[in-house]
UniProtKB/TrEMBL annotation:
Originating species: Paucilactobacillus vaccinostercus DSM 20634
InterPro entries referenced in this protein's UniProt entry, alphabetically: UPF0145_dom_sf, UPF0145_YbjQ-like
Pfam families the record matches: YbjQ_1 (PF01906)
SUPFAM superfamilies in UniProt: YbjQ-like
Protein name listed in UniProt: UPF0145 protein FC26_GL001118
The family this protein is said to belong to: Belongs to the UPF0145 family.
Amino acid sequence: MTMSDMLVTTTERIPGQEYEIIGEVFGLTTQSKNIVRNIGAGLKNIVGGEIKDYTQMMVEARDVAIDRLRTNAAAMGADAVVMMRFDSGSISADMQSVAAYGTAVKFK
């Protein structure tokens, strides 16, 4: 199994699988957009609507956080991660931090 194939689920149970809990795993990232995109986002803020550059930044941050979560789980010898959740917050007007966290498990 490659790291990208590691099952990450938001559920507590994996149907048909017995496993033992290894421990908590995390994937963290902080993302920022460049100054040109920040100016464009500021202009969009005046007229309203979705700020697509920031949406894309959050998608990228989520993907990085999940990849790092899988890396953390693989380093612990896990086969999967259950109860995965996200948390995010602003560090400044143009920086977002995203954390993916869950429970690493090993199949019996």
